[in-house]
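In response to reviewer comment 3 from the previous cycle, which asked for concrete evidence that the modeling workflow produces usable outputs, we include below a single protein chain processed end to end. The sequence was submitted unchanged, and the resulting structure tokens are shown without manual editing.
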Amino acid sequence: MEFKVTFQLESQYENEENNILKTEIQYIEAESLELLLEVLDGDYIESYDDISVINIDTDDYLIGTNIDYVLIEDENENVMYRDEEIN
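The workflow returned the following structure tokens.
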């Protein structure tokens, strides 16, 4: 089964004006929602490329980046998971 996973990416700089927040969508194959969550909670997020939220227009100190999966839909666009704290 293919799942549509929406990720929220955010950079955090000393000066908050330089922070970038964006969403990205990935389509990921998994046999079930439970197995998909295992993959996401494993190494998937740690290896996710966060370059899109690095602000190249500043010399400000980057404190860090954060990546969360915030919405998961199945092949029929049924919401299987929603992060209520973020959405």
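Residues 14 and 21 are 15 Å apart (CA to CA). We consider this sufficient to address the reviewer's concern, and the full set will be provided in the supplementary archive.
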